[in-house]
Structures are given as structure tokens and as C-alpha cells.
Amino acid sequence: MAKVKAKVKIAIIGVGNMGGQHIGSLLDNKDCSLVAVCDSDPKKLEAAKARGEFKLYSDHKKLLKDKICDAVVIATPHYDHTTIGIEALNAGYHVLVEKPLSVHKNDCERLISAYKKTKKQVFSAMFNQRTEPEHVKIKQLLDKKELGKIMRVNWIITNWFRTDHYYSSGGWRATWGGEGGGVLINQCPHQLDLLQWFCGMPSKIQATCAFGKYHKIEVEDDVTALLEYPNGATGVFITSTGEAPGTNRLEITGTQGKIVYENGKITFTRNEIPCDKQCKTAKMSFQAPEKWVIDVPPARGHGGGHRGILKNFINAIAKGEKLIAPAIEGINSVEIGNAMLYSSILGKAVSLPLNGNAFEKELKKLIKTSTFKKKVVKGGAASSNEMAGSF
């Protein structure tokens, strides 16, 4: 893996909501130098110009050709993650891609294929929720089999409330052709990534998605999905951008107990005897296992959010540090989200691995047949304060 002895020189491609946040993070990082930013929107470049000493580009192809950096952070609208990512990898750059890795499974595979041709570059994804101390602790407990055999997972993640003003902030947003979906491709890639990070990939998904239920959009803003896993475990995943007050509650049940994570607190209710063993050996009809209720502290030495992932990316380039969120794992959350949409469109369960060609064909059909007219509000973009409060 290529290493850079001096400060890592980085460029950001796309300086909208998230790219603008990354400018501040990289300027504050002493181990890197932000040498350039790129955006096709002159107003965004003008806003970025006042924040530091770096070169401005309106064309990412010119930036990649100039070879002024070691790595690029791609924070463009979703479809461009694939095309620009492939170009950057083919040109020899280290690449960090904002979530989602791509819009659909086939594009993920195209992007990953470009990386696999050399494997010399660092290739990371912005799954910053993997750095959160509580999530790290849950992962540690599951990896140590503290819950025994996983039986069920339930995640209600409905605190993604968004207004019509939000969806009007960009012509690409919340359209099939511009964004490729709604809550599953925009807000929930983090939870879908954590879901597979914790519990592995499901083998079957059946979902009901509502399109434009709460907003003037053509994509999904409300989802209820049923999951089946290879070991017989089941799950429920519920999300929405139209509910307030919302809920963020994760519950994972195993034979050895149950983890509940809500309001920043992890509670582990542990069975003294595994429930499957108790079921077969107990001499009374209603004799559940004795249990302990434990408040689990978050993992020490973790955290950092977006800045943590950026720091890890830089350290991976300069020092060979292991990636927290390898981009090749980003295909998993995309595949789960695609499967939920495809199941809803078909009106039946779909098996995983997902048929990427079939879903891409369906998505292209949605784009081609769309009659939705997007209303864009000038000045509708979220402020930096709003963005900081949303993650």
C-alpha cells in the first residue's frame, strides 16, 4: 500500500453540505494539507474560497490531471460517486467516498472493480457511525458472542425528520434521476451499514415503501422492512423522514440475552442460562431464565465522527493504519437498501444476493418514466449549524 512521507495532500470534490463540513475538518488536521476544492457550482466555490488557501477547480477532470494531491474526498451527488471514484482510482489517487458508496449494487461493483485492479491505494467510505463508542461496544459484544446465537434484530430509526424546504434545496435531491432514492439512500446508509456490521447480511427482505407520503417528492420517505437471516433469525427495520418526534431504538436479541441501545445508553439484559437451553430443560411452564440487567459503558478510546474517519483515512495513507470503514464493505448497505426498494416495487420478498441487473433495470425505468417536476428553492441549503446538528 502506497505511503506518503510528508503531509498527505488532499482535495475535496463537491463542497455542498457535507463537502463544506469536510473543509473545516481537513483544515484542522495537522497531518494533512487541503490543497484544492472542486465544485461545478461557482457560488459554492466562492463560499469555499474564503475559508482557506487552496486551489479552486470547477472541473474534477482538470483536478485529477494536475496531480497536485495524493488523495481525494468525493462528496458529490450520489451517482457521481461511481464515475468520479473510478476516474480517481484509475489515476492512482487514494479515495474516500461519502455515503452511499454508489446508488445501486451494480455501480458499487464497478467502483470496487476499479480498486481491485491495483489495490495499491487506500479506499475508504464515510461510515462515521462506526467510530461512535456505543456502536463500537455493541460490535465488540457481538463479536465476542456475548448474546449467543442472534435470534432477532429490530431497529426503529425515525428521527430523520426533514421538511419540504430541505427537499427543495437542490434539483437533484429526492429524485430517481438525481439521487436514486430517498431515506434509504440518503439518511439511512449509516444504519444499514451498522445493521450488516453487527448482524451480517440478511438472506431475504420484504418491504413496504411509501413514495412521497409526507413530502412533495417522488422517492421513498417511509419504509417498513422484514428481514430473514441465514441462521433463521429475523428482523424489522423501520425508518421515515416524516415523523416527529422520532425514535432511534436498536434491539438485538440472542439466546444469551438482549441489547437495547436508545438515547445514548446501552442496556444488556443477560440470561444466566441460554433461553434455548432453558426451553428444553425447565420443569415449569413459564420459567424464564434468571437474568442480570447491566448498563454497558461505551468503548474507550473511540469516537470522532466524520473527523475520525478522515483522520483514519489520512493515517492509513501515511502510516498504514487499518481502515475503520473499507469502501469495499460499502456495497452491503447499498444492496440492503436496493433490496427494500425492489421488494416494495415488486410487492413480494426478494432474496439476497440481490440481482443487481434486475434492480438497475428497474431504477432506469423509474428514471425514464418519471413525470415529477421538482421545485427548487433558492437559498434552501442547510446552514452549517443545521448540518452539525443532524449527525
Commentary on this structure:
There is one protein chain. With 391 residues, this protein is an alpha/beta fold. It folds into two domains: 8-128 and 304-326, NAD(P)-binding Rossmann-like Domain (Rossmann fold), CATH 3.40.50; 130-299 and 333-385, Dihydrodipicolinate Reductase, domain 2 (2-Layer Sandwich). It has helices spanning 17-28, 42-49, 60-66, 79-90, 105-116, 133-143, 164-167, 189-199, 275-281, 305-319, 330-346, 356-369, 384-388, and strands spanning 8-13, 32-38, 55-57, 71-74, 94-97, 123-125, 150-157, 204-211, 220-228, 234-240, 248-254, 257-262, 265-271, 291-296, 350-351. Strand 8 (204-211) and strand 9 form a beta hairpin. It is globular, with a radius of gyration of 22 Å.
Return Rg in Å: 22 Å
Give the number of domains: 2
Mean pLDDT: 94
CATH class of the largest domain reads Alpha Beta
Structural class: alpha/beta
* CATH topology title of the largest domain: Dihydrodipicolinate Reductase, domain 2
Low-confidence stretches: none
Could you say what the CATH architecture of the largest domain is?
A: 2-Layer Sandwich
Main sheet strand line-up:
14-13-12-11-7-10-9-8-15
In whole angstroms, the N-to-C terminal distance is: 32 Å
- The count of strands amounts to 15
Q: Largest sheet, described in full?
A: 9 strands, mixed
Measured by DSSP, the beta-strand proportion falls in 15-25%
Helix and strand string, N-terminal first? EHEHEHEHEHEHEHHEEEEEEHEHHEHH
Shape: globular
Quick overview:
The chain is of the alpha/beta class and 391 residues long.
Topology:
Layout: E1 8-13, H1 17-28, E2 32-38, H2 42-49, E3 55-57, H3 60-66, E4 71-74, H4 79-90, E5 94-97, H5 105-116, E6 123-125, H6 133-143, E7 150-157, H7 164-167, H8 189-199, E8 204-211, E9 220-228, E10 234-240, E11 248-254, E12 257-262, E13 265-271, H9 275-281, E14 291-296, H10 305-319, H11 330-346, E15 350-351, H12 356-369, H13 384-388
Parallel strand pairs: 1-2, 1-4, 2-3, 4-5, 5-6, 7-10
Antiparallel strand pairs: 7-11, 8-9, 8-15, 9-10, 11-12, 12-13, 13-14
Helix pairs in contact: 4-5, 6-8, 8-11
